[in-house]
Amino acid sequence: MLEPERRTVVDRVADLARLTPGRTGNLSVRSDEYVAITPSGQPYDTITVADVPVVTVDGDRVAGEGTPSSELPMHRALYGAFDAGAVAHTHSPWATTLAVCREALPPVHYMLALAGGRVPVADYATYGSEELGENVVAAMAGAESTACLLANHGLVAVDDDVADAMETVVAVESVAQVYCQACTVGTPEPLPEAELARVERKLAAYGDDRGES
User: Fold this and answer.
1) Which residues does the annotation mark as catalytic?
2) Fewer CB within 10 Å, N- or C-terminus of the chain?
3) Three-point CA angle 124, 9, 178, nearest 5°
4) Of 89, 82, 80, 77, which Cα lies nearest the Cα of 28?
5) Which runs of E-coded beta strand occur in the chain?
6) Residue 45, number of CB atoms within 10 A of its CB
7) What is the DSSP code (8-state) at residue 67?
8) pLDDT tens digits, residue range 153-188?
9) DSSP class of residue 66?
């Protein structure tokens, strides 16, 4: 069941591992009313397709040998609120640095256009809780962003597929590092909304033969 989606999870956990320490991140892919998600507490390099659990959007496990990630409630909340095909969650160090300071990431670099511009901070709630999912949805909807910092926790992003969701978390982590470093030198200057909108249009055509490269 959902073998292509479960294979995608297995294939991309190595990318997740490069961003997050230990077994602290998670990844999921949605197909209609079902979600394939990383198994809870299992080392990334040991996960097989058979290990990847499949759950309904209501949270009922229907396939897979592993226990669904403890962050399943957050993933479910995001799928319920947004038209997303994938969710990526990391504890990447620079984004988490801002998260523990409870400081949003302003659009100081055009690559944040991938996330909609400013990356907000969701109010703190215990990991794996329904409340955390609600807080994340509220923060992202309020900022019209596809990524969010989780107070004292980490980073999450949604997108159409795993490749795009992972690209977003990588971009947010990179800009978070630049922002933190720039704050030690001077005062970072955010880009205006009009420029972010222009960049978003250009990025949509990036790699397309009909667009600029």
Assistant:
1) 71
2) C
3) 50
4) 89
5) 26-31, 34-37, 54-56, 61-63, 86-90, 121-122, 147-150, 154-159
6) 8
7) P
8) 999 999 999 999 999 999 999 999 999 999 999 999
9) S
- CB crowding 194-209: b at 16 or more within 10 Å, else e: eebeebbeebeeeeee
Looking only at the bridges linking them, the beta strands covering 147-150 and 121-122 are: parallel
For 93-108, the pLDDT digits (tens) are: 999 999 999 999 999 9
Lookup: tokens for 19: 């961003």
Query: How confident is the model at residue 208, as a pLDDT?
Result: 54
| pLDDT tens sequence across 189-207 | 999 999 999 999 998 887 6
- H-state helical runs in 26-129: 72-81, 93-101
Report the distance separating Cα 125 and Cα 112, nearest Å: 25
Kind of pairing, strands 34-37 and 26-31?
Answer: antiparallel
CB atoms within 10 A of CB 80: 12
**Whole-angstrom distance, CA of residue 52 vs CA of residue 58:** 17
CB 38 within 8 A of CB 8: no
pLDDT in tens, 128-147: 999 999 999 999 999 999 99
